[in-house]
Write a structure and sequence with these properties.
- The protein has about 170 residues and is of the alpha+beta class.
- About 45% of the residues lie in helices and about 20% in strands.
- It has 4 helices and 7 strands.
């Protein structure tokens, strides 16, 4: 009777979307599980957190009026080359759910970066304008120095002579 925990750590649990649970007693590759269940990905169950209805309503600004607790589960998608280890719980996730999650993650990232991009674009434009102003100033100073040196140093006409070779006898 005291070996119940030993049996649980020696099993690999796979949860299906329809609620069915498979228990395996040896490590298996994610590729094999995906081959058996086409259209599904294998995900490692990381954490499951239960929130009370009051905490969920507080976080959502009071929008959730239900009395049922809210369950938040974090998962990590596995590559086909990964091996499912004993003692862990895995879940099969449909490809539609994966695409929906990736799209939501991408949109959240874009919203996060959008204000930063506007300010960074503005800063880059300011830097570019200041660099252009500096180059204009340098060019104007060069022209002034050329004009001033030309006035103080007047060049006279100098003949250009070519070398003449002498023919020996």
């Amino acid at each position: 009777m005291g070996n119940c925990q030993a049996i649980d750590s020696a099993t690999l649990v796979i949860q299906h979307p329809n609620g069915r649970v498979d228990k395996l007693y040896s490590p298996v590759s994610a590729k094999q599980i995906m081959k058996i269940n086409p259209g599904h990905y294998v995900a490692l169950l990381l954490t499951t957190t239960m929130y009370s209805a009051a905490a969920a309503a507080k976080n959502n600004g009071g929008l959730n009026n239900s009395t049922t607790p809210l369950r938040v589960t974090r998962i990590k998608l596995l590559r086909p080359t990964d091996t499912l280890a004993l003692g862990h719980v895995y879940r099969l996730v449909t490809s539609q759910e994966v695409m929906k999650g990736l799209l939501a993650k991408k949109q959240a990232k874009m919203q996060q970066q959008q204000p930063e991009n506007i300010s960074s674009d503005f800063e880059a434009q300011i830097r570019e304008n200041t660099e252009l102003d500096k180059t204009k100033q340098v060019k104007q100073e060069r022209q002034r120095s050329r004009n001033n040196s030309g006035v103080s140093k007047s060049r006279g006409w100098q003949p250009s002579l070519k070398a003449i070779s002498e023919a020996g006898s």
